[in-house]
Structures are given as C-alpha cells and as structure tokens.
Amino acid sequence: MSMHFEDSSSVTLLFDFWDVHGPAGMALSVFVVLLLTVFYELLKVWKIWLGERSSLAPAPPPPSPSPSSPESVGSTAALTSIPSETSLAPADHSPTPTVTKSWLLHSIQTVVHVIQVTLGYMLMLCVMSYNVWIFLGVIAGSVLGYFLAFPLIGRF
C-alpha cells in the first residue's frame, strides 16, 4: 500500500466488498463518504443538543414543610409539620419521572456518542486509503455538514 495520495479510480474502502474500479464507482463512493461525513456532523450537533437538554432537566423539588398556623402550635399536627420531624420520616426512593428522563437522555447520548466515534474512525480509515477523491469527499462532507448542522444548535 502506498503512503502518498493517489488520484486513481481504483481503491478498496473499509471492507473487501467495497472495492472500487472505474470513475462511476469512485463518484458513487465519494458521494457515500460525503453523506457519511454530513451524518457525522449532524451527530455532533445532536449530541450537543442532548447534552444541553439533559443539563436543563429540572431537579426534583425538595419536600417542603407545610406551614403551621398559630392556633395549632400546641397540637400534634404542629409537631408533625416541624421540618426536623418531617425529615425523620422514611423517604420514598422510587424513581421520579425526572430521574427516569435524565437516565433516558444519558443513554441516548451514550448511543449517539458510540455511533459518532465509530463513524469517525471509519471516515479516518477512508482517508487513510490515500485516495485524493475520497479525501476530498470527506473534506467536502465535513464543510457541508458543518454549514448545515451547526446553525441548528440555537434553534432547539
């Protein structure tokens, strides 16, 4: 394998079955690589959006003590409404919808990250085929993807 860029229309990309011979196959391969790179840039924006969304998720509110009225100070109802007494009550540790939503967002963000890393390494291997046309397809896809995707960050 050569270690310099070539402009031939014959290359094997990623797998043995992606063996390109001829200008039509090279044009199709460059287009596929360009689309994969645009998808990679969209994944980066989606991961940023999910991160902002998970940081904006409200935390569950702390239990607030009920205000005691002045006429019930001597009664047992007033003793149960004192914050120190209510804090001794067993807490309900069932997951709240906010916690469940936070875990779901984190899980989705993890899956998106794995897909993004995998796709990034696949694109790197495409560039390492040292084919000028594939390299230009990755660069053009990155430019197009960034141009299309990053203005979307402020719109969510």
TrEMBL record:
Q: Which residues cross the membrane?
A: 20-43, 130-153
Q: How does it sit in the membrane?
A: Multi-pass membrane protein
InterPro entries, from UniProt? Cop_transporter
Q: What keywords is this UniProt entry annotated with?
A: Copper, Copper transport, Ion transport, Membrane, Transmembrane, Transmembrane helix, Transport
Highest taxon listed in the record's lineage: Eukaryota
The family line of this record is:
Belongs to the copper transporter (Ctr) (TC 1.A.56) family. SLC31A subfamily.
Protein name according to UniProt? Copper transport protein
Q: Which species?
A: Megalops atlanticus
